[in-house]
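Hey, I was hoping to borrow your eyes for a little while. For a while now I've been wondering how a particular protein folds. The fold is given in discrete form, as structure tokens running alongside the sequence. Could you read through the record and tell me how the tokens relate to the sequence? Take your time with it, there's no hurry, and the full record follows here:
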Amino acid sequence: MDIIRPIFSAEDLAQMPDDGKRYEVLEGDLAVSPSPNRKHQRCVLQLTRFFEKVEDAGYGQVFPAPFDVILDHHNVVEPDVLFVCQDHLDIVTDANIQGPPDVVVEVLSPSTRDRDLGVKVHLYARFGIREYWIVDPDNQTLMVYRLTADGYQPWGPYTRDETVISPLFPAHPLTVATLFR
């Protein structure tokens, strides 16, 4: 007997309860995550502060979670932090992001680590997200994947004493240590 598993969509996700859990649809599969821990949230706060400076300089807009990104009917993600460059702001609606943002940041948690390092790397590259940042609060590192014609190329991991410069906002370097205050 074959087991038939349901295929979830953006419409199904909209019907999920507001129960403090994070719901995403990845390749039609429903992914549920518990509320994040203190280290995770501190990193998200520092990332948001960094991207607010980038926003204030006129490069685009930052959106911390919870804010859905609808990549297609069967792929809806809720990154920890995302950034949309000024020339792509037409994908931003009051309810969500309709298409790939320019930068997506995920902060690793025990419950999301495998997903963030696995399916999301391939998913984000496939949909054309220009940079995917992965912050590891336990090891205090930042890995950056930059999209090229051949897919994502990894840069890093950057450690606490290193600085990251994105070609998307080169005048705003990020000192990795600031993420772990």
